[in-house]
Amino acid sequence: MLADLEARLARFRRLGLAHLPTPLEPMRRLSAHLGGPRLWVKREDCTGLGLGGNKLRKLDYVLCEALDAGADTLVSGGVVQSNSQRQVAAAAARLGLDCHLAVYHGRVAPPDAAYETSGNALLNRLFGATLHDVPWTGDRNAAIGDLARRLADAGRRPYVVPYGVSSPLGAMAYATTVVEIAHQSAALGFVAGAIVHCSGSAATQAGLAVGAARALPDTRVVGIDIDAEPERVHADVVRYARGAAALLELPFDPAGIEVVAGHAGPAYGVAHEATIEAMRLAGRLEALVLDPVYSGKGLAGLIALIRAGRWPQDADIVFIHTGGTPALFAYGETLGL
Ligand SMILES: *Cc1c(COP(=O)(O)O)cnc(C)c1O
Question: Contact, 230 vs 261, CB < 8 A?
Fold first, then answer.
């Protein structure tokens, strides 16, 4: 059914901002260190623009809507070290649009002074975004909407990119990753037993789940909760997956959605020992740069599942490196690497 999924996805336009397909590479040394299964990494950190990450794949489709609407300004938001808003800022620069970002303070207690100014915060300024400091209230999209209304009142034509670029369209976009993995794993001679990745604002997992249900029916999608809110993540994955399936005119069964709890550490944005161990292993064995908020926790979850014996030794498991590289520098010395 791969060709069918490709045909459905081809009904939607993409801007070509992201470098695609991203590589699928073996992690031989990490696999050997853990004693199997065979591990692979899908390099969504290599999507290119503005230091890359998984949000560009969503933006590639979502921003067609912004251009069609004649928008002159992108409006989005996130925490100080949000990879999502940094990728929105990068896309705006490339497209020649203004970018206004609601920067949430208070969701993450800054681990050190570098948190406020380096990493993604530095890149937002480099890409020319206008930053608006707002308090975190728990509502991910309210301040973004308020900012867009203020800009519209001032005569701008804003386009709102939701928190995490998560929406039914963003989720649909992420199903393209499954198409790439299906072709790449076939060429490499394996069928993935599972695709494992960290899940937050949920459209990444939603797209993977909808795509895999159609094109890789023997592959389980396993999301690792990194928000310390597994029920909310699960509910959002189901919601966006239902929306993405509707856009693609595919059936959707929520029974296949799996969000694994217990690997987020004490809170969102706080690195803990298992995360730092996973980052260290990925760095020393595979020269992969994971971050303490997302991809490090995702790999920590995968390692814990492997150690618990979830898969046989001869299984092939794909880990998605969703990006987050710049945030490493915002945590810097606090990680004790
Ligand atoms: C946003 C993000 C995720 C999670 O993707 P969602 O679609 O929000 O679930 C994972 N890793 C990194 C590095 C991210 O920036």
Answer: yes
